[in-house]
Amino acid sequence: MQWHGTTILVVSRNGKTVMAGDGQVTYGNIVLKHGAKKVRKIADGQVLAGFAGSVADAMALFDRFEAKLREWGGNLTKAAVELAKDWRMDRVLRRLEAMLIVADRNNVFIISGTGEVIQPDDNVAAIGSGAPYALAAARALLRNTDLDARTIVEKSMEIASEMCIYTNKNIIIEEL
């Protein structure tokens, strides 16, 4: 059996950055948990971070990312690049199975263990099983409405939960 999960979405619009994650944890075809918290504020509430993948691996990565933020004086871009370099090159870290999204008021990054640091063109990003659904909904709402970032995230996550069997409606939202 295989672990599945989650949907993490971040939208930055008009000076607000909002990140959401659903609460479902699935093993094979069994839902084990409905209310897992996969998004949080870090760096004294100045950065949002969300993960898809192994919880233990993600917690280790959050700790390392926060250390990189401190090391680079809060520079999100530099911290993201340095974490990705370490993650790819370190023999132990390379085995971690997770993806991260980090964001502040100005930047959004997806960070992976293959050394990727992706900054989307439109400050909208998603990871996890339901990412394609949430991302498509968010982009459509951004392009065709004047909705605020929080409303776009709420509506997009609802749409993802209706389409992805590994995403539920127990949405946790963090906002900057």
Automatic annotation (TrEMBL):
CDD domains: protease_HslV. GO terms for cellular component: HslUV protease complex; proteasome core complex. Allosterically activated by HslU binding. Its main location: cytoplasm. Its EC number is 3.4.25.2. It catalyses: ATP-dependent cleavage of peptide bonds with broad specificity. It is found in: Cytoplasm. Na(+) binds at residues 161, 164, 167. The keyword Metal-binding applies. GO terms for biological process: proteolysis involved in protein catabolic process. Keywords: Allosteric enzyme, Cytoplasm, Hydrolase, Metal-binding, Protease, Proteasome, Sodium, Threonine protease. GO terms for molecular function: metal ion binding; threonine-type endopeptidase activity. The active site is at 6. It is an enzyme of class 3 (hydrolase). InterPro entries: ATP-dep_Prtase_HsIV_su, Ntn_hydrolases_N, Proteasome_sua/b, Proteasome_suB-type. Belongs to the peptidase T1B family. HslV subfamily. NCBIfam families: ATP_dep_HslV, PRK05456.1. PANTHER family: ATP-DEPENDENT PROTEASE SUBUNIT HSLV, METALLOPROTEASE TLDD. Protease subunit of a proteasome-like degradation complex believed to be a general protein degrading machinery. A double ring-shaped homohexamer of HslV is capped on each side by a ring-shaped HslU homohexamer. The assembly of the HslU/HslV complex is dependent on binding of ATP. This is ATP-dependent protease subunit HslV. It comes from Pseudothermotoga thermarum DSM 5069.
